Amino acid sequence: MDNPLLDRHGEALDLFTDRVHAVGADQWAASTPCTEWSVRDLVNHLTAEQLWVPALVSERRTLAEVGDAFDGDVLGDD
Predict the structure, then answer these.
(1) pTM assigned to the model
(2) 9 in a domain, yes or no?
């Protein structure tokens, strides 16, 4: 099934992935325009938000059902 919205979402994820892979080891602690967040904090936030997509869209779960499953550090050491 062709879905323009999902296609665009996939394109955005590809662009985000390219940019994350371009971050150097010495750049993860750098500040962002959101002065309270480092690059790592921002990537962790965006990654955690994307983890919600399958649960809410494909599995049709509610926010309450997902709960705090994606709170905290979702990046780990990698």
Answers:
(1) 0.80
(2) no
